Amino acid sequence: MIYILAFIVLIGVIVFVHELGHFWAARSVGVGVERFSVGMPPNFIDFTKTKKGLVIDIFFFAFHENRIKWKKVFSTTLISFNAPSETVYTIGLLPLGGYVKMKGILDENMDSDFKGSEDELESKNALQKIWVMSAGVIMNLILTFFVFVLIGNLQGDTRVENNDTTIDYIIPEQPAELAGIISGDKILSIDNIEVETWSDAVIIIEQNPNKTIPIIVERSEAILSFKASLGSRPNLSTGRVDQQVGTLGVSKSQVPVQLNFQEAIVYGFNETIWAMTLMTSSLKMIFQGNVSRDEVGSVIMIGDMAGQAAQAGLVPFLFLMALISVNLAYINILPIPGLDGGHIALILIEVLMGRKLSVKSRIRIQSIGMFILLSLMVFLLLNDIIRVFS
């Protein structure tokens, strides 16, 4: 049960913030919003502001003319909310996404009934359209920043207890142990370069992945020389997982550091940049074909990760939320028809052409984009199912 709840909360928050960006941006340039939905159809609960009050409609399966249909099963009005609005706020039954239905937009609904009124997106200029279509991505990046700030406030940060070159820990079966280096050794030089601080040592080690280099240490006032064959790993510290850095298998003692509000802001900013770098390099690896099938997944994988993170605690769950939020931002900005980036790409093409594409052409482009997206979703779902059963 915790896996389902964690998934709903994780996706619900991220999607709500994304669609809220589109909603606020549309309203800011005078575009009418017909429906704001968190979750996908069929509609489960509708909230409609009328002059009589807030109308709440609940939909579910019910018998109608001797057949089971999805229909309205309950309705009530809260008279205390009597400010009318043209927007219907909806909670969809399927917690797999959401949408903002704006007036005068050609989206995945393929609705091409444009009237040319001032409150339609089609009536706005290119900059206003780009602002509306990019606002969801911007909000996801803002969410990522605030989540990392919250993490900084909750758990603080860590730093090495001291910056000298004495080794505190040796990782078993790693290059240092295999070379004969032990904890307590003080590193004097690496690759014939003298080191005075731990930071200096880390830099030299990371610059030499998979190389055999000389290391001189001091042990009980004796000077010893070793040859260490360094290993390698993705550069997680900077987020550049497309780059390899050297590893020796040694570490220093870490101490926790409490962050004040200003430090938490800086921490949140740095971690957001790290997450964006991580996503950029990950996408680069995907497009280069350097990512295996086991490393990509659909909502099944996300649900599994959400459940595990929720069981691990609040901070791991928030960390996953920040990463998924960045992921959604980057995926949505890709220039694929049907995604926000696809809409922006079409707008820019029309600007370069000096005229609008025909509705027929845009529908055809949207159809191709939706086919690509649906095919990708099916592939990821099948990939997750195969992984589960294997």
Compact summary:
The chain is of the alpha+beta class and 390 residues long. Helices cover 45% and strands 27% of the residues.
List the main descriptive attributes of the protein structure presented here.
390 residues, alpha+beta, Pdz3 Domain, 3 domains, 4-stranded antiparallel sheet, 14 strands
Description:
The protein has 390 residues and is α+β, with helices and mostly antiparallel strands. It contains 9 helices and 14 strands. The strands form 5 sheets. The protein has a 4-stranded antiparallel beta sheet with strand order 3-2-1-4. It has a 4-stranded antiparallel beta sheet with strand order 8-7-9-10. It is elongated, with a radius of gyration of 27 Å. The protein starts with a helix and ends with a helix.
The largest β sheet comes out as:
4 strands, antiparallel
Structural class, judged by helices and strands? alpha+beta
Secondary structure: helix percent? 40-55%
Task: Tell me, briefly, the overall form.
Answer: elongated
Write the H/E string, N to C: HEEEEHEEHEEHEEEEEEHHHHH
For the terminal residues, how far apart are their CA atoms?
Answer: 23 Å
What share of the residues does DSSP label as strand, in percent? 25-35%
Integer count of domains = 3
Low-confidence stretches: none
Q: Number of DSSP helices?
A: 9
The number of distinct β-strands equals 14
Neighbour order of strands in the largest sheet: 3-2-1-4
Q: Mean of the pLDDT scores?
A: 85
Radius of gyration: 27 Å
